[in-house]
Write a structure and sequence with these properties.
Strand content: 15-25%
Number of strands: 23
Radius of gyration: 23 Å
Largest sheet: 5 strands, parallel
CATH class of the largest domain: Alpha Beta
CATH architecture of the largest domain: 3-Layer(bba) Sandwich
Mean pLDDT: 93
Number of helices: 12
Structural class: alpha/beta
CATH superfamily of the largest domain: FAD/NAD(P)-binding domain
Length: 453
């Protein structure tokens, strides 16, 4: 008898687990309320990156005079942009659905709820359906966090999901939150022509990132005309006839046409009947898991944003794959646990920012001896050819063994280039392994070999 595997939530974790488990012979039921592919993925990540790509194209056109072109400023057609985003979302969802259908995965549209540890009921348009399960994965994702002091109307006071793009391009956008999502929105809308004010609750943007990386981004934002309110924590948003006023705890305020909340997300763990299944959650609503993504109930797993680990689509997909392999008994002796400290991440600002592994500040805080080498892109032939020498490559390694421990990249295509360092970090490669690689010339990747050397 095949394993009955029920998955609640069809985002990157859920659909990857469904694909792998079905291929290995499981009887898979995938329950999704909103969109197969994941709301946070297809309604947040993908449209934001599509808008950033448009903003990047506009920026390239504006800078193209430096490459010998007689350029004119690009104009945004917001209706065409909306249609482009909808087309991308639809195509990606269709691709996932077709793959799952081809593998015999049963897809049920509705809200799944536990009624016991092995039974899930789905409220569908045609009434409730009940499924027995030998194993269950809950991967219901997250939604934007809205503080008590903010009244979101989707018109002037927005969450991220109202902004892909908004009904009208903001004349002056006040962004609340200076983490990854916040700075991406600042870059996006400043590139599209909006004035932008960023409320920074601490003394640097990207408070969890390398201070040198954050400083490089701050300099670029200021160069764009972005206004930074540092050390200010938003406490209220007032509607005015002209737009909004964001008030801060230190008495300062920022007026604009629109306000955007980018202050994190909360897990979609409510309404799942987790108490009836015996699944424990922490004080923030995240489902607690071990290194196998197993919850407090041995046959129930959690992955993606719901698990409280790194909220990255790449991490969720990897969790889903490893869960499916475990459910189907496919984990081998050489199985490698997920090491969240070695996950590569990127911020799609201009210039892009990416990092992986050990951070320089963390190493110094721990008193750990490291070797730090850095090469600016201004020394790269390819960067000069591209007329964009901004940024740098930084590699951290063990001074005794030469093993690559981490790295940061600021610059064009940082999100692509970080993959080389990620492979080195994950597999314990040495800096000499990068140096000895015969890379393309001229290419931006050469800066990695130079930094390693």
């Amino acid at each position: 008898m095949s394993v009955r595997f029920v998955i609640v939530g069809g985002g990157p974790a859920g659909n990857t687990a469904a694909t792998v488990a079905a291929r290995l012979g499981a009887e898979v039921t995938l329950i999704e309320r909103d969109v197969v592919g994941g709301a946070a993925h297809l309604w947040d990540c993908i449209p934001s990156k599509a808008m950033i790509a448009t903003a990047g194209a506009m920026g390239f056109i504006d800078r193209s005079g430096g490459m010998g072109l007689d350029n004119t400023r690009a104009r945004l057609d917001i209706d065409v942009l909306k249609a482009r985003i909808r087309e991308i979302e639809a195509r990606l969802e269709s691709n996932v659905v077709q793959l799952l259908q081809s593998q015999g995965v049963r897809m049920v549209k509705g809200t799944g709820t536990f009624v016991s540890p092995n039974r899930v009921v789905v409220n569908t348009l045609n009434g409730p359906q009940e499924f027995e399960a030998d194993a269950v994965l809950i991967s219901t994702g997250s939604r934007p966090r809205i503080p008590d002091w903010a009244s979101v109307d989707g018109e002037r006071v927005l969450t991220t999901r109202h902004a892909y793009p908004p009904a009208e391009l903001p004349e002056h956008l006040v962004v609340i939150g200076s983490g990854v999502t916040g700075v991406e929105f600042v870059h996006m809308f400043s590139s599209l022509g909006s004035q932008v004010t960023l409320i920074v609750s601490r003394q640097q943007v990207l408070p969890q990132k390398d201070p040198e990386v954050a400083a490089a981004l701050e300099a670029e934002l200021l160069n764009r005309g972005v206004r930074l309110l540092k050390g200010a924590r938003a406490t209220a948003i007032d509607r005015t006839p002209e737009g909004v006023v964001v008030r801060c705890d230190d008495g300062r305020s920022a007026a604009g046409s629109h306000a955007l909340l980018a202050i994190g997300s909360i897990p979609n763990s409510d309404g799942l009947g987790l108490d009836l299944a015996g699944v424990k959650v922490d004080d923030y609503g995240f489902v607690t898991i071990d290194h196998h993504c197993v919850t407090s109930v041995p046959h129930i797993y959690a992955a993606g944003d719901l698990s409280g680990k790194l909220p990255l689509s790449s991490v969720a997909s990897m969790q889903g794959r490893k869960i499916a392999e475990r459910v189907m008994g496919q984990q081998t002796r050489g199985h490698r646990h997920l090491d969240y400290d070695k996950a590569a991440s990127a911020i799609f600002t201009e210039p892009e920012i990416a990092d992986v592994g050990l951070a320089e500040a963390d190493a110094f805080a721990e008193g750990r001896k490291i070797r730090v080498t850095k090469v600016p892109f201004s020394a790269s032939a390819k960067a000069l050819i591209n007329d964009d020498p901004r940024g740098f490559v930084k590699i951290l390694s063990d001074p005794a063994t030469g093993v690559v421990l981490g790295g940061s990249i600021v610059g064009t295509q940082a999100a692509e280039l970080i993959s080389i360092i990620a492979v080195a970090v994950t597999n314990g490669l040495r800096v000499n392994d990068i140096v000895d690689s015969l890379l393309v010339h001229p290419s931006l990747a050469e800066a990695l070999a130079e930094a390693a050397e």
